[in-house]
Structure of PIWL2 protein:
Amino acid sequence: MVLLVPELTFLTGLSDLRSNSRMLKEVMWEMIQSPQQHYQRLTGLLRRIRDTPDASRELERWGLCLDTDIYRTQGHILPGERINLRHCSFLPAEDLGWHREVTKEAPIAVISINSWLLIYPKRLQHLAKDLLAAMRSSCGSMGMQVGQPAVQELRDDRIETYVRSIQSSLGSQDKVQLLLCIIPSGRDDVYRAIKKLCCVQTPVPSQVINAQSLMGHPGKIRSVVQKVLLQINCKLGGQLWGVDIPL
């Protein structure tokens, strides 16, 4: 038993934010502020300390003095790195992302997906249909080939049902490149069981997709599927992009 003195402890971390969208939004706003916003908040704090007599006296008692501005130094700005794909190269945009470019051009090395399994519970069959359609429509522009999967529709979404179906499907197939599973939202237990089976007990590259990410307008689903295809290509040994590394 560990006994903690309440006056010397404080709670860290946050509860599950997914069930509280408002709190999640506020936390994300705090995390992704710009450097200018961080600077303004720091200088604002310094001014508040300076203008609060109690705080100033406490610092004086400690023999401390805070400047009203943070320390400034000259930073070194690195040049932008050129991103190389198979047939073209480019400099990233200001946000340093290149998702748009890499989904319209062929990666450096692409692995065709010919022998793969798609497993999902029956109640999510409409999402599986949308997923397959989006994969077929997106793979061409990315230089990938996606064949018809062996489909296994589950009667329920229990862990045992997923595990038994995966073991049976892998045992009946000669060579499986990839296992792709759709799981219900909020089922981390199913995710862990699938990954344990595919990484430890019966090694095979696997991709698990949360049903929530496939819900919404077609543009959102297409964006999710493009990212999934890039992940799958890496897991199968493909190479997405490179940078110039001088001698």
Remarks:
- The chain has two domains: 22-69, 99-243.
- The chain has a mean pLDDT of 88.
- The longest strand covers residues 116-121.
- The helical segments are 21-31, 35-51, 53-62, 99-102, 125-139, 159-172, 188-201, 218-235.
